[in-house]
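INSTRUCTION: Work out how this chain folds

Token vocabulary: learned, describes local backbone geometry

RECORD BEGINS BELOW THIS LINE
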Amino acid sequence: MAGRSGNGEGETLREAIAERVREEDLETGRDELRANVLGCWIDAVTLDQTVEIVERAIASRRQCQHVAINAAKLVRFQHDEELRRVIRGCQLVTADGQAVVWAGRVLGQPLPERVTGIDLMHAVLERAGERGYGVYVLGARAEVLERAVGTLRERYPNLRLVGARHGYFQPDEEAAVVEGIRESAPDVLFVALETPAKELFLARHRDRLQVPFVMGVGGAVDILGGVRRRAPRWLQRFGLEWAYRLAQDPRRLAGRYVVGNTRFTWLVMREFFRQRLGR
């Protein structure tokens, strides 16, 4: 598992991964279930396997925080000690971007596929409708969230949505936001804030929230609310989803994608040549 110590909680979730991979993988040790990409341990799991882990966490009532890793987050991981600490403390870490999967292959750390935050969100929502899990959504502007909730109710008619709150609150309101979520007693919490705000919020309050599965979903609520559109499948397959996002919001995303992607490519190539020269 991406993570951590050998405590009971971490081991239970690690075993959930082990049960979903090939038998031959079980004999090769714990690290064979993860890939180390630029110092960040990422779980080598498929979307189906990830959903299985989420179900195990909910059934056991153990806390599981998921984080999705893309190129921009990996670049930030190199210098942001607080974000790095939070990511290393998550029980479930998946590759959000195709660039991360490609980097893993180049660096000899293969990942079976990317498991994006938005794809996992929809897979969990579908399972929640089937299983009766309570879901809470935090984030986005109030009017966007309202439209997103309408979309969720239409798309997942059996979904038990126990609460939703916009993401524009002041620091002195944060404790009340946490208590509101806690009182709603969801099984699943989606937090649609920016990086690293969503990761830090969940890390700060995970114990107090007492929600079995929590994850940040970034701009997924904006897509559900009709503010932004997701890239077509063919762009996703070629790893160009970032370019589609950039075209929709160039002022906000130019630094992240243009500068960040250049930095990411340089980091991967530096590590590639370091490995080759070190052999």
Summary: Residues 250-278 form the longest helix (29 residues). The two ends are 28 Å apart (CA to CA). The chain has a mean pLDDT of 87. The chain is about 55% helix and 15% strand.
